[in-house]
Amino acid sequence: MLDCIYRGCHEKGELPGGLRVTRRAASLNAILLHDLKYSNVEEWIEAIRSGGRDFKYTLDVVTCFALAVNEENASFGRVVTAPTNGAAGVIPAVLLYYLIFSDNGYAADKSKRENEIVQFLLTASEIGSIFKKGATISAAMGGCQAEIGVSSAMAAGALIERFGGNPRQVLMAAEIAMEHHLGLTCDPIKGLVQIPCIERNTMGAIKAITAAQLALNSDPSKAKFRWMMS
């Protein structure tokens, strides 16, 4: 996932397929880092961390990460299916956001950081399996809510668990993220996973972070769900 983000943040040009979509992650990465010099992924991460935790900066960083992955996907690059290729940018973007901006990520020693990654992915995977077994993660069957919605729910639940949320808050975060993707259709222009698919990953990542923060500051016992109101 990290290699994919790094590659995507440094590749320029147009995506293949005829739509002439310009890659944006590399230019956004350059703007964010103000031409800081680095020679490898570790130095790149330190350069990002040196930019601080300003809201706009953080928002742009997460957006850049998600763009990078799905621009790689759209150009036959190597991505991690999470849970699908078209929605592969959400979980890596939120995970790297957590590792860069939390005290338990790149601010901690390597063994602790690796444990954080494992716990994040285990939680995300379990949430994804609930959707896979109970519904679908295929956009062809369930619309884009089944891909971006599920990936956002997976990321939201994993993020709040790492923030110290309890199991009920984890599920609440996942539900919030999914709820605000309901009805999202699968409508790629000319069948290419580019427009609107790439940008939808940025939206899914930001919604995941918002859902996690909202659930972390909420009481799940007082939550109202759609099935309770019908």
Description:
The chain is mainly alpha-helical and 230 residues long. The protein is built from 11 helices and no strands. The chain starts with a helix and ends with a helix. The model has no long low-confidence stretch (mean pLDDT 94).
List keywords for this structure.
230 residues; mainly alpha; 60% helix; globular
Q: What secondary-structure arrangement, pairings included, does this model have?
A:
Elements: H1 2-8, H2 25-33, H3 41-49, H4 55-74, H5 90-101, H6 110-134, H7 139-142, H8 148-162, H9 167-179, H10 197-216, H11 226-229
Helix pairs in contact: 1-4, 2-4, 4-5, 4-10, 5-8, 5-10, 6-8, 8-9, 8-10, 9-10
The computed structural class is mainly alpha
Q: Quickly count the helices.
A: 11
Q: How many distinct beta strands?
A: 0
Bin the strand percentage: under 5%
Biggest sheet architecture: none
